[in-house]
Every structure is written in C-alpha cells, then in structure tokens.
Design brief:
Oligomer: single chain
Structural class: alpha/beta
Mean pLDDT: 94
Radius of gyration: 16 Å
Strand order of the largest sheet: 2-1-3-4
Length: about 130
Amino acid sequence: MPHFIVEYSDNLHEQLDFQSLFKSLHEYVVSTGAFPLGGVRSRAIRCYDYRVADGRDDFSFLNLNLKIGHGRDMALKQEVANKVFEILCDWMTPITDSRYCQISFEMTELDPVLKFNKNNIHPLFAKKE
C-alpha cells in the first residue's frame, strides 16, 4: 500500500501521460515516510463507456482513488489527501485549461481484517527504506 487507481474517460487518452503522474505520486507518498516504496503501485483504467453531465462528446472525467492500509492518523491522511489532490490538479492543468473535465479524488482506508496481500518486492527495498 498505497495503491493509486485512476479511471478516466476515453476522450482524454491521447492527452495524458500517466507515467509522469505516477512518478510524482510515488515520490511524494514515499517522501512522507509513512508508505514503503515496495508497496506503492499505480494503474490507469480507460473507460470506453461513460456519460458526463448531458452527454456532450467533449465533456470528460478523471477519478483518482488512493487506497491505503489502516493505521495512519487523521492529520497525516488529510495532509496526504490534500497534497495528492494538488499534484493531480496540477498535472491536469493542460486539460482543464483547454476543455471541460470533472476531476475527483478519494482516499480509502482499507479494513485490516478484510485486506489481504502478499508482496515479495518489499525485501528489495528494505535496506533503502
């Protein structure tokens, strides 16, 4: 953890460079000291079937969900949420300056009893983290 999951409308696809966004997000969350590099992952899901507002072809959307594990205090979660949304909005500025787009973000804290994972990448970064 954390996991960044982006869903976005197909009509944005040619304008987005997700690797630059993911690099900024990964670097930021790791810099807080609260998230291990070996657990950070990101993905983008292109939505071919969608409707925004009244259905105009030039309307678009992008939603980012950040899933984190349980146990961090509210002050840290608020700080991280604010900064992640700032990074996202800054990255989206070329889009929002030139077209209509709905941007949303949500942080989800996963229940420790209902979350399962197995990660053999952590040991690669154990000495660096």
